[in-house]
Amino acid sequence: MMIERKLIEQIVTAVLEKLDENDKKKNLFVVNAREQKSIEILEKQWNIIQMSAPVTIPEKTKEAVFLHVSQDLLVKAALGMTDTDESQLFSLFMNRGISITFIPSEELVWLLDSGVQKEMNQNYAAHLVNYKQMLEKFGVQFLSLSEFASTSRSVTRRYEKKLLTEKDVIESKSNEIFIGKKTIVTPLARDSARELAKKIIVIDKKE
Known about the structure:
This protein is of the alpha/beta class. It is 46% helix and 19% strand. The chain folds into two domains: 2-22 and 160-203, no CATH class; 25-152, Rossmann fold, CATH 3.40.50. It has eight helices and nine strands. Helix 3 (71-79) packs across helix 5 (122-137).
């Protein structure tokens, strides 16, 4: 009987995960994607949309990420200048209320921790930090690519799975497992939760 239950759960898991793969992914508008590797990392979490001519932004797009952000874009975005394709897109996203993340280029990566390089003019560096702070007041977040991807994964694991399985319960490092209202909890998952003294908590996530 236990073998049959496990087999049924495995089949249901495979089917729902396949359906869930496309359903749970949200649109992400990616600007300035130079390497295929970056796209492959982001594709694990989002439906990727890249810049085209003319620019079209799908209606359900709520998030955008700019890769390899240069000093030119940093300054122009902060000052509201729109004389380049990237700065025009930034303005368009802001006007539509789309969340924006900047992944700094190698020359600006120090902005992530404000650890100014020794050879830099300190006053000039402070000037660039000021532009960053201006953008943060607009809601722009500054992250590395790995930070951006891992932040999304943690949110997806916590709220958006369609099926909670025995394996999920066993591998969870927390004693409280948060799921969405539409998540299906398998019988084996409930059994494991009881045996391991873990709580399955249903939350109503607002979009």
